[in-house]
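Q: Sequence in, structure out?
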Amino acid sequence: MKEKLLNNLGLKVVSLVLAFVIWMAIVNISNPVVSGQPFTIPVDVRNEEILDNANLTYEIIGKDSVTVSYQVNTRNSSLFRESDFSAYIDLKDYNDVTGAVPVTIEVNKNKVSLIRNGEVTAKPMVLHVKTEAMQNKKFDLKVNYVGEVEDGYASGITTLSSDYVVARAPESVIGKIASIGIEINREGANADLDGYVTPKCYDANDKELTDLGDELTITPESIHYNMAILKAKELTLNFEVKGTVAPGYRFTGVESDLKSVPGVATKSVLASVNALSVVD
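A: Exactly. Output:
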């Protein structure tokens, strides 16, 4: 068997080379039409403002890419690259019944003449778009405090640059938001606090909502706050009695279970106050 395979081996090799040369010659002469290499390319979106003006937001259902198919002569098939093709959908062609938008393919102007009849098809030929109404909703701001002030101090009045915000998002997102608030960290504070914070969204259980999508906007996006930190001090009660007792009675003094009360004020005010007078 081995001898049969090796017999006239040179002649067999020559025959194979000759067959390949003849095949190449036929291909170069006839230059037949073949299917070009398919490419998967992303789909751009045009005229988004049409839905914006209708107070609608949208999302593409499924993949936002298509595969292009075309036919080309054999000798030109290797000339094409993915960058020679682009795809887009135009939202002015949006069908509000089916949600379908046709895909348009564009070809590099230097390559379009190489494609048979200039025809390129996309798979899929349409993309489906889901729309949803946008909603604006006003929320009164809640103030949540984190931590406690330093011993001997107390929280005073907090003033905000705005008492409310307006959230704008798809209706399904707005429906998840029960409240919007800010957090002020007062841990260990012994002086007035001043700064800017970003509002946060909360659900009905006061749990922060952290993944509401990129379409949510809150106006204003930052809140300025000023929080007074007051000095706290125990003030002794001094009882002052006026007038005279009735005939036959004698005043022997004042007794009270309450000897002092906490006082809260600015440092300068409390510095000169150590007691409170109770006049009866």
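The chain has a mean pLDDT of 86.
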